[in-house]
Design goal:
5% strand; 109 residues; 6 helices; 62% helix; mainly alpha; Cytochrome Bc1 Complex, Chain D, domain 2
Length: 109
Amino acid sequence: MKKLLVIGIATMAFAALSARADDAKTTYENACAKCHGADGKGDTKIGQKLGVKDFTDAKVQADLKDDAAIKAIKEGVKNADGKTVMKPSEGLSDGDVTALVAYLRTLKK
């Protein structure tokens, strides 16, 4: 009986994590892909204009710290002149933002 309980809890946890990953992918597609591209390369017209980072690049991924990515998502990004180049994402919980950063990590090639 204990084994069934453990298996049941593990299955529910896996389903919850899978749902969170699916939600993060959907959030990325809806809020980020316009500039960063569906694949994370940043080779969209607006992404090239803004000079967004290529999230598929291993060096970019290594240089990008989770706390900096979380801050950028929550607070947005301004260039050296103080002009907003990325608006903050609104309506995302802390868990959503953390899941989104984890999703960004999956784009590395």
